[in-house]
Amino acid sequence: MTWENFLRQQAKEKGLSADLEDTLLEAIPSASKAPQAQKKIAISLNIWLRENNYQPEQFIDLVASKVVDNFMYLVCLIDALVKTEYKNFDLNELPPNLEQYYDLHWRRMGMTEPENRFKVMVIYTIKEIGTPIPKEAIADILETDLEAVEAVLNNWFQYFKLENVEGELCYNFYHLTFRKYIELREELDSDKPMFREVNQKIFRFLKQYKYRGEG
Q1: Residue 165 forms part of a structural domain
Q2: How much is the pTM?
Q3: Residue 190 pLDDT more than 80?
Q4: How high is the pLDDT of residue 10?
Q5: What average pLDDT does the segment 121-137 reach?
Q6: What CATH number does residue 165 fall under?
Q7: Which domain of life is it from (predicted)?
């Protein structure tokens, strides 16, 4: 069974309409209409399977048993498995629900490490601003270059959606459950200082923007 057929089967079992099914599938690189994207994901997954000693059928059965109750869990997982951070990952470590998977993914992506503090602040900025925000504004708020922000957004693209706001492309959370996960992190003692810093930067940015507008 191919990935595309497996995903379609899962979608149908969840009672999704054909339109919604296609929308979900297109959110996954392997189901992209672009042949190059399909080829890239297939090669990456085949390498992952070989390096982790999984047969395709065994892999599909195991993943299906873990994510059977949440199709969006499957969407996030397939994107994650081709990342270098998931090399040598044991699928038996997959938690039983999407919310717990977010925490596993956060740690696998190194977001609890001091050297990745900037990446965390990009995501926290999107949460704290509360409305769709262009990447240029994120860069201005964090006082950094645009390329650094783009790198973070590209690495977490499955978790954000692009919205056209008055002709400007803006980022917002794609999954409400992921936004709730980020909100829970605001209560962690380890992360409270970053949230405070982000809010201070947002305040300064909005204050400067207001003054520029009045000028």
Answers
A1: yes
A2: 0.78
A3: yes
A4: 52
A5: 96
A6: 1.10.10
A7: Bacteria
